Amino acid sequence: MARKKNRTLFWVFAILIVVLASVFAIQNSAATEINFLFVEVTGPLFFVIVIVFILGFLLGRIFHWLPKKRNPEK
Predict the structure, then answer these.
(1) Domain assignment of residue 48, given as a range
(2) Count: domains in the chain
């Protein structure tokens, strides 16, 4: 019984996330121009925000994997 409840809860949250992401994409569909060094890209604002979010996530994971400096005093 608990497994069925967990599955239902999963689908409720999954549908909620899809609905919120769809609303976000619709409200932020204006074309935006991005200039970085020699690259110029034009695309929807939501796409730019999602790309920046993914890059931030990946950078966070990379820095998490890097070895930490050990303090010899401790």
Answers:
(1) 2-65
(2) 1
28, 49 contact by CB (below 8 A): yes
| 74 is a domain residue | no
Which three-class secondary structure string do you get for 2-20? Answer: HHHHHHHHHHHHHHHHHHH
State pLDDT tens for residues 14-71.
899 889 888 888 888 888 888 888 889 888 888 888 888 889 889 988 887 777 766 6
Rounded to whole angstroms, the Cα distance separating 34 from 39 reads 8
Q: Is residue 71 part of a domain?
A: no
β-strand partners of 31: 44
* Spatial separation of the C-alpha atoms in residues 41 and 31, rounded to whole Å: 10
> Which positions ≥6 away from 62 have C-beta within 8 Å?
none
